[in-house]
TrEMBL record:
Organism (species): Gryllotalpicola koreensis
Domain GFO/IDH/MocA-like oxidoreductase: residue ranges: 150-286
Keywords, alphabetical: NAD, Oxidoreductase
InterPro entries, alphabetized: Gfo/Idh/MocA-like_OxRdtase_N, Gfo/Idh/MocA_oxidrdct_glycsds, GFO_IDH_MocA-like_dom, NAD(P)-bd_dom_sf
Name of the molecule in the record: Gfo/Idh/MocA family oxidoreductase
Amino acid sequence: MSAESTIGIIMNGVSGRMGYRQHLVRSILAIREQGGVTLSDGRRVQLVPILVGRHEDKLRDIAARHGIADWTTDLDEALADPRWDVYADFLVTEARVPAITKAIAAGKAVYTEKPTAATFEEALELARLAKAAGVKNGVVHDKLYLPGLRKLKRLIDDGFFGRILSVRGEFGYWVFPGDGVPAQRPSWNYRAEDGGGIVLDMFPHWNYVLENLFGRVESVYAQTATHVPTRWDERGRPYAATADDAAYAIFGLAGGVVAEFNSSWDVRVNRDELLELQVDGTEGSAVAGLFGCKVQHRSATPRPTWNPDVPDQHDYAADWHEVPITQEFENGFKVQWEEFLRHVAEDAPNPYDFLAGARGVLLAEKGLESAATGARVDLPEVTV
Ligand SMILES: NC(=O)c1ccc[n+]([C@@H]2O[C@H](COP(=O)([O-])OP(=O)(O)OC[C@H]3O[C@@H](n4cnc5c(N)ncnc54)[C@H](O)[C@@H]3O)[C@@H](O)[C@H]2O)c1
């Protein structure tokens, strides 16, 4: 942090979906707009971003649109400049490790999208390098900041569930193959050779959700599929989808909770939200989504009896009650950015580091191993 209380942030990959919308506009510019990050003693630290990317025209356009003075296509030059304290990475997964490795060598604090790498070995190496260099490091854990999951966390902390028995996660939606209606995700997501695949994309999220809410993931059994083998890219050209686009997994958690997650880009939504987690416990159950969270207490549980001869008139949906909103929820990416910047500025706690990121990549890797071998795979505890 420089003397005039600003933090300079190198933002690499701001032309991408996540880099532009969630990290630049909804987080860094929103924090800048509010006058910076407030530290524990009330001081404010303002942010100064520099945009980095491969295409001059895109950078110039974004910089002009948002009144940003600094941009460059030369990452090395930005890393060599002491004005910039933090390196932030929103690149395609495949490009991430070399860029972060350089940023660590340059002594920058590093904040990155997940997955931190495409393999566990590389992800762990990043954690090792960051520790050896003494640079602060953080990884996006955005799902933990969703209003629905924060309400769920409060229920857990309040002991609402009694003993938690199981978690069922349903995630997914129909991603158009791209012929006719354009695909709503980048084509690299569907090519294994470009770091794609729903396991590598989503299992890092499931790992931090599970370990922070229910317990460490100790084992995984997964079956994957490439249900749609041909898709059409951003230019309308057909390509072979080589990566998994659906995964059906069972995670064994420390303490005995069983978590079962379906992740798919090939399902049509018949749920309230694109992600839903049903948690069942001895005293009550909850269904949490991105925004909502509904509960059913033991005392209000109906007593269904199975009878295929009589149409069931019971309205099961009516047995659930929405958890009221009792606090304001800000954009989760922004909240986590502020926490990380406090970690940089005044050493505030930051549990979501490269080691947490490596655990997420390990779950993806072991999930793919399980899918390839058909066996349940145990996950070792990870240390640097
Ligand atoms: N936290 C979340 O909820 C979430 C959601 C989606 C994606 N992601 C992650 O964010 C990252 C970016 O995903 P996205 O959907 O924004 O992708 P995207 O394709 O929209 O953007 C990728 C960015 O990387 C740049 N890029 C592409 N190839 C490059 C290369 N070879 N070298 C340098 N730069 C390159 C592009 O110019 C672009 O700026 C991925 O790692 C993805 O896993 C996270």
